[in-house]
Amino acid sequence: MDIPKTLQKIRENKKITRKEMAEKLFISADTLKDIEYGRIRLTLENFLKICQVLEISPLNIIEAKQDERYVILSQKDINELNRICLKINNQANYINDNHGTININNGENND
After folding, report:
1. CA distance 38 to 2
2. DSSP E strand stretches across 11-52
3. Residue 107's pLDDT is what?
4. What is the rounded distance in angstroms from the CA atom of residue 108 to the CA atom of residue 99?
5. Which residues of 10-44 are buried (b: 16+ CB within 10 A; e: fewer)?
6. What φ, ψ does residue 41 adopt, rounded to 5°?
7. pLDDT digits (tens, 9 = 90+) for 13-43
8. CA torsion angle for 92, 95, 101, 107 (degrees, to 10)?
9. Among 39, 44, 40, 31, which residue's Cα sits nearest to residue 71?
10. Rounded to the nearest 5 degrees, what angle is found at the Cα of 80, between the Cα atoms of 77 and 83?
11. Which of 39, 73, 91, 102 could covalently link to 34 via disulfide, CB atoms 3.0 to 4.6 Å apart?
12. Dist CA 50 CA 27 (whole Å)
């Protein structure tokens, strides 16, 4: 099973309609349908957003694909992943510098 289909099945199992999911992703229901059916390529950004809405770990989805041992990323996806990692690293440095804590669920600083 491919990743978009897996995400679709999880969405359906959680009783989230395509329309509800699309609204949370700020895309149309038709665009989400095209992603789920593979007519539009699932970008890293949309993959991460969908996982967030479904409250699942992206790693669990990738690791569940036991028939494949790698993920093919475009240069745009690699750049986006690097940007996200840099942002996380910068937030961690800020937290360490200020001896505060962070709520991972919403990113608010809880000093």
Report:
1. 9
2. none
3. 47
4. 14
5. bbeeeeeebeebbeebebeeeebeebbeeebebeb
6. -65, 135
7. 999 999 999 999 999 999 999 999 989 988 8
8. -60
9. 44
10. 155
11. 39
12. 11
Judge whether 40 and 34 are in contact, CB under 8 Å.
yes
For residue 27, give the DSSP letter.
S
Rounded to a whole number of angstroms, the distance between the first and last alpha carbons of the chain is 44
DSSP line for 67-110? T-S-----HHHHHHHHHHHHHHHHHHHHHHHHT--B-TTT--B-
Q: Pick the more confident residue, 19 or 89.
A: 19
Rounded CA gap, 20 and 17, in Å?
5
Tokens of 74: 């475009």
- Give 8's strand partners: none
Query: Which residue, 39, 4, 35, 10, is CA-closest to 22?
Result: 35
User: Cβ atoms within 10 A of the Cβ of 83, count?
Assistant: 11
Task: Using the structure block, give the residue that is written with the tokens 């690699």.
Answer: 78
**Two structure tokens written together for 94:** 């800020």
Instruction: Record the tokens describing residue 64, joined without a space.
Output: 């569940």
